[in-house]
């Protein structure tokens, strides 16, 4: 038999959870549309050849690359993410990585992007990868990111191509 105190605590917890869900739902349509717009515009800009990450990532972004391999892990600021995860690949690309967005989903502060990316490596080979990025946004900036991609394809480029000379 459940005590009245436990029943009261359970009821209060349920009310608190429902209230939090209602508050989130009340803000979600505006936040959802704004966050989706920011990310959609950023990817359109990137598709046209303009670097966008300094504009959409918070300086203290927490970026997690899921999987196994040397680049997998969590980076706790943009500078570390760029130097340790992005640059080892991009300096081995002769052309910019160009995204082809397939889907963008947004709910509240979360935006999910599924896209393919391709570029030519410094050896002339084609680099192609598929990505799913999950962004958590705050005040128009990505504060938390999770990335899913083929890390073997990433490593093949890093291991088999010389860095650009410039």
Characterize this entry briefly.
The chain is α+β, with helices and mostly antiparallel strands. The protein has four helices and six strands.
Can you put this structure into words, describing what you see?
- The protein is of the alpha+beta class and 166 residues long.
- It contains 4 helices and 6 strands, in the order ααββαββββα.
- The chain has a 6-stranded mixed β-sheet with strand order 2-1-6-5-4-3.
- A hairpin with a 2-residue loop joins strand 5 and strand 6.
- The model has no long low-confidence stretch (mean pLDDT 86).
Q: Topology, pairings included?
A:
Layout: H1 4-47, H2 53-56, E1 57-65, E2 73-75, H3 78-90, E3 98-107, E4 110-120, E5 126-138, E6 141-149, H4 151-160
Parallel strand pairs: 1-6
Antiparallel strand pairs: 1-2, 3-4, 4-5, 5-6
End-to-end span in angstroms?
74 Å
Q: Mind telling me the C-alpha Rg? A: 20 Å
What coarse outline follows from CA principal-axis ratios?
globular
Strand content: 25-35%
Structural class determined from secondary elements: alpha+beta
Q: Walk across the major sheet and give the strand order.
A: 2-1-6-5-4-3
Please mark out the parts with pLDDT under 50 across 5 or more consecutive residues, or reply none.
none
Overall strand count? 6
Average pLDDT taken over every residue: 86
Helix content: 40-55%
Largest sheet: 6 strands, mixed
Please give the count of helices: 4
Sequence of secondary-structure elements: HHEEHEEEEH
